[in-house]
Design a protein that fits this description.
Blueprint lengths: L1 H15 L2 H10 L6 E5 L8 H16 L7 E4 L5 H9 L3 E2 L2 H9 L5 H5 L6 H6 L2 E5 L4 H9 L5 E5 L10 H7 L1 H12 L34 E8 L13 E8 L1
Parallel strand pairs: 1-2, 1-4, 2-3, 4-5
Antiparallel strand pairs: 5-7, 6-7
Protein name: SRR1-like domain-containing protein
Family: Belongs to the SRR1 family.
Organism: Meyerozyma guilliermondii (strain ATCC 6260 / CBS 566 / DSM 6381 / JCM 1539 / NBRC 10279 / NRRL Y-324)
Length: about 250
């Protein structure tokens, strides 16, 4: 375990000097992030990428002054050593459902109590929760969006990671992701750090993708921005296609 911790500490030094970290912090520092739910991290014991991702998580917890008891991680690949490392940091090992429930049980602040608008506990929590999903599957990302109404996601660029799917297949299988992508494609994507997004592929001389109708889906957001992040560094592919997604509520 000590060897793994030492490697994570070295990775943390690299992250601390990285533009990647400073950009994420500057984008989120005014949002009063109070919880982080991290899924699909991988195994820090066996993966250098996972160690760098955990190092980034540690720096974000530090930057936003989040209590370790409000940081939740889950990945079925975690080894016993991984679990020892994570819990030694004070973080909690909980499933996605349990983590969201734990966040929802947090008492409201005095400012929240004074709000006249009635908002359910889940919405209060998710509006201050950052979901960190390094290299999560489309299925997991869809669940986080559709079931738990995530508002801030540090995850695979939704445009890049759905480009291999036709518009219809994305709509049929990942409805909330499809809506997110459609909103983003209607507006500009922040391309300060990478090339502009690729257009969704269309097969020539076959058919034109039908216009999609989301009117009956009762989506919880109506605008989104995706900020692609600089990913080059000593961490290899740890942050390939990483982007910050912000979803605005209706």
């Amino acid at each position: 375990m000590e060897k793994i911790v030492d490697r994570i500490n070295v990775a943390e030094q690299d992250i601390g000097k990285a533009e990647l970290l400073s950009i994420i912090v500057s984008e989120l520092e005014d949002l009063d992030i109070s919880h982080i739910i991290c899924l699909a991290l991988g195994s820090p014991e066996s993966s250098s990428a996972a160690r760098y991702q955990l190092a980034l998580l540690k720096k974000l917890v530090e930057a936003f002054k989040i209590s370790p008891s409000k940081v939740f991680l889950y990945d079925p690949v975690f080894t016993d050593t991984d679990k020892q490392v994570i819990t030694s940091l004070g973080y909690l090992l909980e499933s996605l459902e349990s983590a969201v429930k734990s966040c929802s049980e947090e008492p409201s602040t005095s400012n929240e109590q004074s709000e006249k608008t009635e908002i359910n506990a889940k919405d209060k929590t998710t509006s201050r929760t950052l979901y960190f999903l390094p290299h999560a599957s489309l299925e997991l990302t869809e669940e986080v969006l559709s079931r738990y109404h995530a508002r801030y996601l540090l995850a695979n660029d939704a445009i890049a990671h759905t480009d291999r799917l036709t518009t219809r297949k994305l709509y049929d299988n990942y409805r909330t992701l499809s809506y997110l992508v459609s909103l983003t494609e209607q507006s500009s994507v922040d391309t300060q750090f990478q090339t502009v997004k690729k257009k969704r592929r269309q097969k020539a001389n076959v058919f034109v993708e039908p216009k999609l109708d989301f009117s009956a889906d009762n989506m919880y957001f109506n605008s989104t921005t995706i900020k692609r992040l600089p990913t080059e560094g000593p961490w290899g592919n740890a942050f390939t296609d990483l982007a910050l997604h912000k979803l605005d509520y209706k």
